[in-house]
Amino acid sequence: MTWLVLRTTGFLVLGLLTLATALGIAGPGFREPRVRLLSITVHRTAAVLGTLLLLAHVTAAVLDAWVVVSLPAVFLPGASAWEPLWIGLGALAFDAVLLLSITSTLRRRFVNLWWNVHIISYAAFALSWLHAVGIGSDVSDPIMLWLAGCSAVAIAGSILIRLRRRDAPVGVGLPPSARTRELVSR
């Protein structure tokens, strides 16, 4: 049973964090206020749901009798005896997501801290993606390969959207909360 939870949450986490990351990257490229607000809402919702499912994924990994991931290995790269490279990449990604979650809950009080820490979301996504494509029984599964490919294409597409609009003057240099208020008030 834990293997099924581990596998299912892994797929869902990759999908949700791909959506959250893609919208986080592309979101500032959307200039129409309603579209921008929708992208922010979906970005935050996908990030929260992805983080909650990530907690379920990690819990299932610790509880699973076959995988054997110790509690220290959840947080410390290299602490796992089973698949130390791939579990280590997952541990780094998990640590980054925890840091992102903590600073996101404090973003209204510490906008600049949140803004500066949020840059690690790129690394968190890349580490999560590598963990997903490198570990477990689904590595060669066509569904996993399709999901990983779609994930990579979504991120590449969001980067193109962001680069296409990087010269747009709206909100440049403002912290995210101020930029959002400016866009929504138009």
- Average pLDDT for all residues: 87
The shape, in one word, is: globular
Pattern of helices and strands? HHHHHHHH
Largest sheet: none
Q: Distance N terminus to C terminus?
A: 51 Å
Please sum up the structure shown.
This protein is mainly alpha-helical and 186 residues long. 74% of the residues lie in helices and 0% in strands. Helix 1 packs antiparallel against helix 2.
Element layout with pairings:
Layout: H1 2-26, H2 33-63, H3 71-75, H4 84-105, H5 111-117, H6 121-134, H7 142-164, H8 176-185
Helix pairs in contact: 1-2, 1-6, 1-7, 2-8, 4-6
Description:
By secondary structure, the protein is mainly α. It has one domain. 74% of the residues lie in helices and 0% in strands. The chain is built from 8 helices and no strands. The chain has helices at 2-26, 33-63, 71-75, 84-105, 111-117, 121-134, 142-164, 176-185. Helix 4 packs antiparallel against helix 6 (121-134). The protein is globular and about 50 Å long. The termini are far apart. Residues 169-174 have low confidence and may be disordered.
